[in-house]
Amino acid sequence: MGAAQRAGTAATWTALVSRAYDHARPAVRFGDLTWTGRELLDRAAGAADWLDTLGPEPGAPVPALVATSADALALVIGGAGSGHPLAPLGVRMTAYEIAEVVKATGSQVLVAQREFADLGRQVAELSGRRISIVPELSTSTRELTAEPDELAAVLHTSGTTGLPKPVPMTQRRLAARARVNGRLCALDPDSFYGGSAPFHHIAGLGNIAVALAAGALITGLPRFTVEGWALLRHLGTTHTSMVPAMLETLLAAGEARHETLRTLQYGGAPIRPGTLRRTYEAMPGVRMLNMFGQTEGSPISVLTPEDHREAVAGRTELLRSVGRPAPGVEIRVEGAGPDGVGEIHARADHFFRIDAEGWLHSGDLGRVAEDGYLYLLGRRTDMIIRGGENVHPLEVETVVAAHPGVADAAVTGVPDERLGQTVVAFVVPSDPDAPPEPAALRSHARARLSGFKVPVRWWFVDDLPRNANGKVVRRDLREPYRGGTHA
User: Fold this and answer.
1) C-beta of residue 197 within 8 angstroms of C-beta of residue 208
2) Are 323 and 310 in contact (CB under 8 A)?
3) What is the residue range of 14's domain?
4) Residue 242 in contact with residue 264, Cβ under 8 Å?
5) What local confidence, expressed as pLDDT, does residue 36 receive?
6) How many domains does the chain have?
7) Comparing C-alpha atoms, which of 380, 269, 375 is closest to residue 322?
8) Which residues have a Cβ under 8 Å from the Cβ of 1 and sit 6 or more positions away?
9) Is 337 helix (H, G, I), strand (E, B) or coil?
10) Would you say the C-alpha torsion 443, 446, 452, 458 has a positive or negative sign?
């Protein structure tokens, strides 16, 4: 049986990619560099040959300091097809943080692109590992193969509750994820994907892996900027992903238009009704998707393009949800109380970190409405208990952030002698010179929330503490907040 036949029958991500790029059309485009599909596979085979020379233990993850680039794609594909699965790490973390993650992998070697050589040397010294700088990758005719239960890659969680945890992505499950996400995003060989999420993130490599399996043309940005978005528009990309805050930045700058964009996938936060309306004005035909998931498994649920069109037509409450179960996903609410709120568990073939019965324990609290839509209420570990009543920070933050005078918001619980905990909000105003009146924020929140959920104090700040992946670190929210004012 030839390579093409095996690619068509094997349930592996490597097989999907090998089949998708067996052609001479453009497959990768970064700056002035363009590789055809065949060149991408040949460079990936060359990357596999180079990884062999490092002597890593077969099947063990290879920690890597790499950014979205043609070489990074070749390393991931080559590593997956040669038993050397790549484990990209966050290059925005400190050397000390990265060193702890590297030591936990057990690998004796760390690889780094030249632009991260200095950081890599610091990490190598702190972790007691040796470092190898990625050379100019040669081509090879080596055939890339893998078994369904072998690792394709390893991503790490964002580390909001401690050291980032490894999430092994097997060939079988990554292939399943590629099929589910690819269908939802309508990705195909005629698509052109370009994003700006960090490569080590599920929104970075995770989405790129889906586009690769579909055979799309791939590009990328090192980070999100308005100028970078203009470049994606100039290149003619058809698919991208972002968080709503990025979209609002583009709208505020008058730069959200994108004539060739077909699908805009977002996550991490709900989108405001006004933002959605203005997005459709800038890009009338775009398909909007909100996918809820995490590094351990995604998508769990999806707010579809049809849901977004219904929302802009009047059903704005849909935007507070994260949609209904994605194809093939079974959801249950574990330990639900009288209000129907409990921890979201989900089961599907495309999840990576699961229990013995196949369930992913999300750590997210939520409820499923009668119409099947899933509403999130925050992380289980973030819950505030005020006088015996449970307050879910995400629910409060979603309401507060909907106020037109609020650009960003975070909520946390602080000790209270009488109630045990009470609710405090940290607000980034839309206009720093004219923040909204606390009384107006209280009135806005009280109209939508029970009284015990309304923050008792409002701190106006320049920004919120976030980790390297952009997630708010609630444990770093403190009163008084230096440089802020409150009322």
Assistant:
1) no
2) no
3) 1-169
4) yes
5) 98
6) 3
7) 375
8) none
9) coil
10) negative
Separation CA 99–CA 107 (nearest Å): 11
Q: pLDDT digits over 399-446, tens only? A: 899 999 999 999 998 888 778 789 999 999 999 999 999 999 999 999
Helix, strand, coil shares of the chain as percentages rounded to 5? 35, 25, 40
Of 116, 112, 115, the residue nearest 132 (C-alpha): 112
Measured CA to CA, the distance from residue 264 to residue 248 in angstroms comes to 14
β-pairing verdict for 330-334 and 324-325: unpaired
Question: In 3D, which of 202, 157, 247, 246 has the Cα closest to residue 467?
Answer: 157
CA distance 406 to 435: 8
Could you read off the pLDDT of 166-223 as tens digits, one per residue?
999 999 999 999 999 999 999 999 999 999 999 999 999 999 999 999 999 999 998 8
Q: Do 347 and 235 share a structural domain?
A: yes
- Sign, CA torsion 401/405/411/415: negative
**DSSP code string of 373-435:** -EEEEEEGGG-EEETTEEE-HHHHHHHHHTSTTEEEEEEEEEEETTTEEEEEEEEEESSTTSP
Cis bond before residue 480 (omega within 30° of 0): yes
Which two three-digit tokens encode residue 140? 């090879």
Residue 355 shares a structural domain with residue 424:
no
- φ and ψ at residue 316, rounded to 5 degrees: -65, -20
User: Got the DSSP string for 112-136?
Assistant: E-GGGHHHHHHHHHHHT-EEEE---
Name which of 262-266, 268-272, 358-362 the model is least confident about.
268-272
Would the pLDDT of 245 be above 70? Answer: yes
Q: What is the pLDDT of residue 163?
A: 72
User: Do residue 94 and residue 26 come from a single domain?
Assistant: yes
CA distance 406 to 214: 39
pTM for the full predicted model: 0.83
Kindly state whether residues 342 and 393 are assigned to the same domain: no
Tell me the CATH number at 240.
Answer: 3.40.50.12780
CA distance 220 to 193: 8
Dihedral sign, Cα of residue 64, residue 71, residue 80, residue 144: negative
Before 135, cis peptide (omega within 30)? no
Residue 115: exposure state from Cβ atoms within 10 A (0-12, 13-18, ≥19): middle
